[in-house]
Amino acid sequence: TALEPNNEVLSCSYDVSGSVFVTGGSDCKLRLYDTETNSAISTIQKSIGSHGQDTTGHNSRIFSIRFRDEFTFFSAGWGGSMFLQDTRTRSPAQIYEGVHMSGDAIAIQGTQVIAGSDRGTAQLQSFDISSGKQVLSVTTPMNVFSCKSVPQSQLVWVAGSQPSGLSVIDMTTGCSPSCNSVELQSTEGALFGL
Q: Can you tell me the distance from the alpha carbon of 69 to that of 5, in angstroms, rounded to the nearest whole number?
């Protein structure tokens, strides 16, 4: 068990080999751990640079982490940005602006990363991983708390609230194919996971 005093852990993800995991939470820090020993390897956090300027990093709660490969992972939360973090340099390799994440809502589809946001419009955004540029913005009928890629397709499952629901979005068109859309009428609260 990895203990983090004074932190509410809100997200965790394992690298592709399963040898490292990362946590993120209320204290805005990303902590890398060795899976076998549960010992801390390093911490990634926003800090003050040598010339008094803020360095890039999370400035609010971290709700989602998703590994891309052995050395890089995405992280996002309430701070307005999603980061592609590099474990070797302990700093962001890319920044994706305009994201407000309140759940496990990062999905990877080929050369794009998809972010689900808890807000009234543009709840799904896809970004080119390399350039950081937004490719598509989709307004869904719900605030998005979770999204997952459907393997071998351009489809993404999304779950959320207001209204509570679950649907599939085609990320090439931004539309929800009617045969794949499901609205869960029996839920009284938000859907936070898939």
A: 29
